[in-house]
Task: inverse folding
């Protein structure tokens, strides 16, 4: 069984959501950012969340975990195959959810919660916020009101991209997201698998 080190609101949500959609069994272990356990530090000295263990396999990148789970426990309609229309979009948004969106949020969240009071509103924080908003608007424009980012169906790419709404709460910018993104995410959050994953503590 997969063991996923999880903290509510962290990128581990992506992995739990995928498992819930696919019916893949998993167990969770606590992964605290502020007070990491000795067990967690031993598993991942970087102290980043999530960590996933599958026997002798240990992984620390959430999107890579999603690819691994789909390959090992599929086939699944959450994955778009090379011979399908929308494959390129699927790959792009699967990666963009982290590399193009959520990664910009890390230093913004760190600045918000850990920077000295006189450094919380610095130039870098403003740049990061602007970069995230520009990219969210790009996604909203690409969606054009459609419910999914690729292949005209819900896929793992939607799980990857939708995480930014959770990250935006931590960054304090959730209310400023484009309306098209808010609608897109609210639609995805109605899925029973998401509701189950989001409830895991």
Result:
């Amino acid at each position: 069984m997969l063991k996923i080190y999880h903290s509510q609101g962290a990128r581990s949500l992506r992995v739990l959501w995928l498992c819930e959609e696919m019916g893949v069994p998993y167990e969770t272990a606590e992964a605290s950012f502020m007070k990491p356990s000795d067990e967690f530090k031993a598993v991942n000295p970087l102290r980043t969340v999530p960590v996933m263990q599958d026997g002798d396999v240990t992984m620390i990148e959430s999107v890579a975990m999603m690819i691994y789970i789909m390959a090992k426990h599929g086939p699944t309609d959450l994955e778009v195959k090379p011979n399908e229309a929308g494959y390129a979009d699927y790959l792009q948004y699967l990666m963009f959810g982290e590399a193009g969106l959520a990664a910009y949020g890390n230093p913004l969240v760190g600045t918000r919660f850990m920077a000295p009071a006189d450094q919380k509103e610095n130039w870098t924080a403003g740049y990061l916020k602007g970069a995230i908003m520009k990219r969210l608007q790009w996604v909203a424009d690409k969606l054009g009101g459609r419910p999914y980012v690729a292949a005209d169906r819900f896929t793992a790419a939607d799980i990857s991209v939708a995480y930014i709404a959770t990250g935006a709460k931590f960054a304090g910018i959730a209310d400023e997201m484009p309306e098209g993104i808010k609608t897109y995410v609210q639609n995805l959050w109605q899925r029973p698998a998401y509701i189950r994953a989001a409830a895991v503590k």
